[in-house]
Design goal:
about 300 residues, five-stranded parallel beta sheet, globular, transmembrane
Length: about 300
């Protein structure tokens, strides 16, 4: 009997919707559908302090304790892993799952397809997930990132409105609706069908090429530019907060400094740097940009 594991964590419910839609072509198959939970839950909507408090452990990929989860089988023929990036890194629940010994044992020698629900930055988190899958002996054969396609700055405002208020709606009736669009969620089954076709053939060699062939996945050059630099800064900040935040009071103080830094970097520094890059440097880096996009869109 062929066995498929579809597993994810979803704080807001959006990733559950994406994965459920993605799995429609697999309805006739034997699917073990598992939704993981944390021993210490991340409440939704977020409180601002709790949101930023998750940054250091997210960036440093430190796992936390999961609630016990049942897997119907000792091994699977395909694993579909849904996850979200937090602070340019895998979410803490995702890292916790990928470092869980039980899950690592079923990853071994198994083809894996990742399905991402993100604001717009998923490149660094996918690199981390890719590495953790490889370390467990799994084989990444496909990646499907679904993102908020709004402008970076406006989407940052709308996503914070959703995360802190729990309402997936247009802020003030002006900003775009946050998160992955209803249309993209509704069409996730088209991407699932490509994976199902590969499953039927038991061949995944050109799966990612066929996924990309639907022209639903792209990387904005500005996002590529930001991600390549911001993760290093996040690592520095995570290290500072872990080192200096030796008491709860000190940690809160350093997290507050990081919060103000992030707002300043996102809304003041980033637009200036991107303008300089696009006017002066981008024309000379087109070949490099093309190669990097091809790499991140792939699975190797």
């Amino acid at each position: 009997m062929n066995k498929i594991l579809a597993i994810n964590y979803s704080q807001t419910g959006q990733l559950d919707q994406i994965l459920d839609r993605f799995l429609i072509p697999f309805e006739s198959e034997n699917i073990d559908r598992v939704k993981i939970e944390m021993k210490k839950p991340f409440a939704f909507p977020w409180q601002s302090d709790v949101f930023f408090d998750a940054m250091p452990e997210s960036v440093l990929e430190e796992p936390a304790e999961l609630e016990n989860f049942d897997l119907a089988h000792e091994s699977y023929d395909l694993i579909i892993l849904g996850y979200q990036p937090w602070f340019l890194s895998p979410s803490i629940p995702t890292t916790s799952l990928l470092k869980n010994e039980r899950f690592k044992s079923v990853l071994k020698d198994t083809p894996v397809v990742t399905v991402i629900g993100a604001r717009n930055m998923w490149l660094n988190s996918q690199e981390a997930v890719k590495k953790l899958i490889q370390e467990s002996g799994g084989r990444l054969v496909g990646n499907v990132p679904l993102i908020d396609t709004s402008n970076n700055l406006t989407s940052a405002i709308s996503i914070l409105h959703w995360m802190l208020n729990g309402k997936k709606e247009k802020k003030w009736g002006i900003f775009p609706k946050p998160g992955v669009s209803d249309e993209d969620i509704a069409s996730a089954d088209e991407l699932g069908q490509v994976v199902k076709d590969a499953w039927d053939k038991k061949s995944y060699e050109d799966l990612q090429t066929k996924i990309l062939g639907l022209n639903k996945i792209s990387i904005a050059t500005n996002i590529l530019f930001i991600e390549e630099r911001a993760k290093r800064l996040f690592l520095i900040w995570a290290g500072i907060i872990k080192k200096k935040g030796t008491t709860e009071t000190k940690r809160r103080r350093w997290l507050k400094v990081f919060k103000y830094y992030l707002v300043f970097a996102l809304f003041i520094v980033s637009p200036i740097v991107l303008t300089i890059f696009n006017l002066l440097l981008r024309p000379f880096t087109l070949r490099s940009i093309k190669k990097k996009k091809a790499y991140y869109c792939g699975v190797n």
